[in-house]
Design a protein that fits this description.
A alpha+beta (634); B mainly alpha (162); C mainly alpha (363); A: 634 residues; FAD/NAD(P)-binding domain; six-stranded antiparallel beta sheet; globular; C: mainly alpha; two-stranded antiparallel sheet
């Protein structure tokens, strides 16, 4: 092995990964006067507007417009792709893509290794969790409790919402306003601080949302308990995309965490395009790329951090963290990384980054492969276990009238009614997301409609135009996202037999859905059927045993996909036996190591994890600041 | 790559290509030129088609616009073993900006071309795919409609059929 | 003349000039938009040679356009504040191109494709007056001079009759940032006590002047607005934005007005432009019914926009929000026209004529 060259400077904090968590940590730490180094494995995708535009062009030219399609997929640094997902059959793992899939079900989610991380192609959904989600074991005897409760995270939710720039109205987002019959009697009390509100007003509802709202008030029986019946309600989704900034009610401003904040200033695109993207313009391509960056991405926070203190913040891209090195006492002494000068070419230089504190913020899977490869965080045996996602099931059909699909953000509203309730002792909670893009995700519309009408229906000319309008204008789609419980057997491991061309371990994944989640999927499916019946939607949903994500429950078949919500692999907890880190995300086994990100979450519940993960990054940042100061005094 | 766009091609072949394309797509020849893609598609079409088949394809254009266009389109083009698959590929090219390769059977009968591969012709061809106009929307990722446009009434069908 | 009559006359005169201001701002939009939309977006990113052509001039002109729209809103707010009736869809007042601004006293504007000549003519539109002495007597030939005169008219009227007699318009008519956020900057609402409304009205007029010519800002290119983003650089006035395109270089905010820009490169390719016929008119399409149909569709959209603005300024502010998709469909119809060759064999393409159509003529 070649010699490892040491970086000259020793930083207060070395962070692995320039995504949601890494960005917030860097900004908070630099603002507190600490020096920060970020190591990012991927390329710099969008710091300059030229490269960002080139990724937009790549999107236009991609035949399959998947979440990762605009961004380069280096053979040397593969990102998981949804196109690689196939059914896992027999005893041999599926090694098609970057993930090595052991099954029994395929793990269908992806992420992006790049400057900005998966924030480049997230949808923008920014939900807080429900109070019950932190107490799954005590309330329902399922999963685990968090080491802290909703109220302990509330101020960090506020900070995260103002960092991301979330558009929503607090009075629409309480559990009660969402039409949730919460499992706890007081869950609605103090869900928001009285002095608080989101930085921007709600993103307007889509016309499609309005169509679904016609079913509002319809009773749906859920669970065995008659008192659990809920009344459907379409509610707007808090979103990390720019809308109209809220004018504070009083001159004092809006209370966010411990600070009073004046009116929020939306951040638009980078470079000479700063005037673009200060408000969502309805490009209808949030996944995979917002052309004007009206949707939040971590590059904005990273740019803020850089601007706060130029010399305190260093970013090295094309730097793959390869090994966390320990001293004999178990403290981290350095991180060895592979700096490659030419994207796609394995040739690299081995370097070592040094800091006082070290943070792994590379995502729930990459944090684990790095830690396993380094032989760290072993004492609980929880590292890599409890992998969770939102199994994502689609139901689609034809509305009786034009609903104006393929306009606006991918989703602006959902039925949030089923996010909590007494039924959770029997089956998983779920959220029904209303899609604005017709059957795009479900069936490849509108291109597939053209192919069908031309090749099968033998239409041409004006009749083809008429039929396209008729069919596609009526397309509606609901996406079910169901919760998963932490399971020791759903896990990420490594195996020396599977490595990337750079010599790094590929994630080896075992994954299944338990009956709790399957029952949730079934209940959601029944609910969608009722909604379709109520609204006169002709059901076109089809699930086939040949689908990669096909499963059965109670004699019926369903197909699920991944939601890209990778959670749980290095969870926080109350002691070194049940968790990888403490509740501040500090590793139990290594005093100056922190694992931050969605992997820290003990349960996934029904909220897309980004907002919670971002809030937790604020929590970790405070603790790391303290540790740096204390370390400095030594 | 030349950026300056040659907008003017008044050769009879190109005009014939537009005439047949208009009949196949249901969009006027001005609308087709308005996509800015006519030149690129004509180029792709010529690259794939053997000369005598191209000639055959264009030769019926003068029959159009007189009386029974539907009979000509169905009989001469869509149900023809050679011209039918070409017509369907051409319709899809205009609607999606994507070239749909001809079948193996067609290639064996009429000739293969190395340009007959699946691809989106250009960034413009994606954005100008007629499908987006036909469905009353805009290409995803381009031609944005502005803040809140998604909440408005669905647009009426543009240039609705008779 | 009784004082009541004098007051009426003063109000009427002010209203007339503010209506002129509205039409002035409106008149610049079609030429700017036409030039902007004539720039070919194809080939902005060339894979074999990674340079992006003309994305930046498109953005620079776009910024100017959205500020002109903001100025229109500001002028309407001032007009509504004094109880005037902004007219946006009166065919007798609307511009027909080519036209000379300021009722013939100002520079000529034409509908032409993006070219150095056309950008120079834009720069001329946004040129600051050398001094304001003539302008203050009503003898103006620049936009800056015209607004200086409007400001003086308003000052004089407030002095003579008192703020309370001048600011009699319904505050509910004021367009606010909530109605208009995200398009070119902050709206000034003219509300509050009569004195507050006077102050706000002057602020609105000042903003129009600064963003246009940057005249009153002490010899710097900056216009006092902040570019969004963590660096918080100062933006520059329109005159200088056009100068940036002509020099292929950005200004830095502290560049002097007397010197050329000294900032980063701004890449312009004058050849990547649609060969649109100068000052296209409906006569050009008489022998081409397919083009005429698209031109009518364009004009119908443009007319719908003007009708919508008229409603927003006079009846229902929420109409503004519904206009956004119309603005974008105007853009794509204009671009469509500019790709269609004229049947005359000249090699030139059609273009938008920006003609107001009565509702029954919109097809």
């Amino acid at each position: 092995m070649s010699a490892i060259a040491d970086d000259e400077r020793t930083y207060d904090v070395v962070i692995v990964g320039a995504g949601f968590a890494g960005g917030i940590l860097a900004k908070e730490l630099v603002s507190a006067g600490h020096s920060v180094l970020i190591l990012e494995a991927g390329e710099d995708h969008g710091k300059t507007w030229e490269t960002y535009r080139s990724y937009l062009d790549q999107y236009y030219l991609s035949l399959a417009k998947t979440p990762n399609s605009p961004y380069p997929n280096l053979p040397t640094l593969p990102s998981p792709s949804v196109l690689d997902i196939t059914a896992v059959r027999g005893t041999e793992p599926d090694t098609n893509g970057y993930f090595v899939q052991r099954g029994p079900l395929p793990f269908g989610s992806n992420y992006l290794m790049a400057f900005g991380g998966t924030s480049l192609h997230w949808l923008g959904t920014s939900l807080r969790m429900m109070p019950a989600d932190f107490e799954m074991q005590s309330r329902f005897g399922k999963g685990v409790d968090w080491p802290f409760g909703y109220q302990d995270l509330r101020a960090d939710y506020e900070r995260a919402e103002w960092e991301i720039g979330v558009s929503a109205d607090a009075d629409e987002q309480t559990p009660k306003a969402l039409g949730i019959r919460t499992s706890g009697r007081h869950d609605n009390v103090g869900y928001f601080d009285k002095e608080y509100d989101y930085p921007m007003h709600s993103i307007p509802s889509s016309y499609v949302d309005g169509f679904f709202a016609k079913a509002d008030g319809m009773p749906i029986e859920i669970g065995e308990d008659a008192t659990s019946t809920v009344h459907l309600k379409v509610s707007r989704t808090p979103q990390g995309r720019n809308s109209t900034p809220r004018t504070p009610k009083t001159a004092k401003g809006i209370q966010v965490g411990e600070k009073r904040r004046q009116q929020f200033r939306p951040r638009g695109a980078t470079g000479p395009f700063a005037y673009m993207g200060q408000r969502c313009e309805g490009n209808s391509s949030c996944i995979p790329i917002c052309p004007i960056q009206a949707k939040y991405n971590a590059m904005k926070t990273l740019e803020d951090a850089k601007h706060k203190a130029k010399h305190q913040m260093e970013t090295i891209t094309q730097a793959i963290a390869s090994k966390v090195e320990l001293t004999e006492s178990g403290r981290v002494s350095g991180i060895v990384y592979k700096k490659y000068p030419f994207p796609g070419v394995p040739q690299h230089e081995l370097r070592r980054a040094r800091g006082k504190q070290y943070v792994l913020a590379g995502g729930a899977v990459e944090n684990v492969t790095l830690a396993l490869a380094s032989g760290i965080c072993t004492s609980s045996d929880e590292l890599g276990r409890n992998l969770m996602d939102h199994p994502y099931m689609m139901t689609w059909g034809a509305a009786p009238e034009p609903v104006g699909p393929f306009r606006g953000p991918g989703s602006t509203s959902s039925y949030a009614n089923f996010r909590d309730g007494n039924f959770r002792n029997k089956n998983a909670a779920f959220r029904l997301e209303i899609g604005n893009w017709g059957w795009n995700f479900a069936a490849g519309s509108p291109n597939s409609d053209v192919a069908r009408l031309v090749e099968q229906d033998n239409l041409y000319g004006t009749a083809l135009r008429d039929k396209l309008y008729h069919d596609v204008q009526r397309q509606v789609r609901i996406g079910t996202m169901v919760e998963q419980l932490p399971r020791a057997t759903n896990r990420v491991t490594i195996d020396p037999a599977y490595r990337t061309p750079m010599g790094e371990y590929r994630p080896v994944i075992s994954y299944d859905l338990d009956d709790y989640s399957r029952a949730g999927l079934a209940a959601a499916n029944d609910t969608c059927a009722q909604i379709f019946q109520r609204l006169g939607i002709k059901n076109h949903t089809s699930y086939s045993p040949s689908d990669a994500g096909y499963l059965t429950y109670d004699g019926k078949g369903y197909t699920f996909f991944g939601a890209g919500h990778l959670v749980g692999t290095h969870r926080i907890g109350t002691d070194r036996h049940n968790s990888v880190t403490n509740d501040e995300m500090r590793a139990w086994d290594h005093d100056n190591l922190w694992l931050v990100g969605a992997g820290s979450m003990p349960t996934i519940a029904t909220s897309n994890p980004t907002l919670t993960m971002s809030a937790m990054a604020f929590r970790a940042a405070r603790a790391i600041q303290k540790a740096v100061r204390k370390g400095g005094a030594k | 790559m030349g950026i300056a766009m040659k907008t003017h091609d008044d050769t009879p072949e190109f005009q014939a290509f537009l005439t047949v394309s208009a009949a196949l797509t249901g969009y006027s020849s001005a609308e087709l030129q308005g996509t800015g893609c006519a030149g690129e598609y004509w180029h792709q079409f010529r690259q794939v088609l053997p000369a005598e088949i191209l000639e055959e394809f264009l030769s019926h254009s003068h029959e159009l616009g007189k009386q029974d266009d539907d009979r000509i389109m169905r009989q001469t083009y869509l149900s023809d073993k050679c011209l039918g698959p070409l017509s369907r590929t051409l319709i899809q090219l205009w609607y999606t900006g994507q070239w749909v390769p001809l079948s193996q059977e067609w290639r064996e009968s009429y000739g293969a071309s190395r340009f007959d591969v699946v691809k989106i012709i250009s960034t413009r061809s994606y954005k100008e795919g007629l499908v987006w106009d036909a469905i009353g929307a805009h290409p995803q990722g381009a031609k944005r409609q502005g803040f809140g446009a998604w909440g408005l009434e669905p647009p009426k069908q543009r240039g609705a059929g008779k | 003349m009784s004082s009541k009559k004098k007051l009426d006359a003063a109000r009427k005169n002010l209203s007339k000039h503010l209506q002129d201001a509205l039409m002035l701002e409106l008149s610049t939009i079609p030429p700017y938009a036409t030039a902007c939309y004539s720039i070919l977006e194809q080939g902005q990113y060339d894979r074999s040679e990674p340079t992006i052509v003309n994305a930046e001039p498109i953005e620079v002109i776009r910024q100017v356009m959205v500020e002109e729209m903001l100025h229109m809103v500001l002028a309407a707010n001032v007009m509504n504040a004094i109880g005037g009736t902004p007219q946006l869809n009166n065919p007798n007042l609307l511009p027909k191109y080519p036209t000379e601004l300021l009722n013939g006293a100002g520079p000529e504007v034409r509908l032409r494709k993006f070219s150095p000549k056309q950008v120079k003519s834009f720069r001329k539109i946004e040129t600051a007056p050398k001094d304001l002495r003539g302008a203050l007597r009503g003898e103006y030939s620049t936009i800056g001079g015209f607004y200086a005169y409007v400001r003086k008219l308003l000052e004089d009227a407030c002095k003579e009759f008192g703020d309370k007699e001048i600011f009699i318009g319904d505050p509910a008519r004021q367009i606010s940032n909530d109605d208009y956020f995200g398009a070119g900057g902050e709206v000034v609402e003219i509300t509050g006590t009569p004195a507050q409304r006077r102050k706000a009205a002057f602020e609105a007029i000042q903003k129009i002047m600064e963003e246009g010519e940057g005249a009153d800002l002490g010899g710097k290119a900056g216009d006092g607005d902040t570019i969004p983003g963590p660096a918080e650089h100062e933006d520059i006035a329109h005159y200088f934005k056009f100068n940036e395109i002509l020099h292929s270089r950005y200004y830095r905010p502290d560049d002097l007005v007397t010197d050329p820009p000294t900032g980063d490169d701004l890449i312009v390719d004058w050849s990547a432009v649609s060969p649109m016929k100068d000052d296209p008119s409906e006569e050009n399409y008489e022998s081409a019914p397919e083009i005429a149909a698209i031109s009518t569709e364009f004009n119908a959209a443009w007319s719908g926009l003007l009708d919508g603005l008229h409603i927003a300024f006079n009846e229902d502010k929420s109409a503004l929000r519904d206009l956004v998709p119309t603005m974008y469909s105007i853009k794509s119809l204009a671009q469509k026209l500019m790709r269609i060759p004229l049947p005359d064999g000249s090699g030139e393409t059609a273009g938008p004529t920006w003609t107001y159509l009565a509702p029954k003529k919109r097809g």
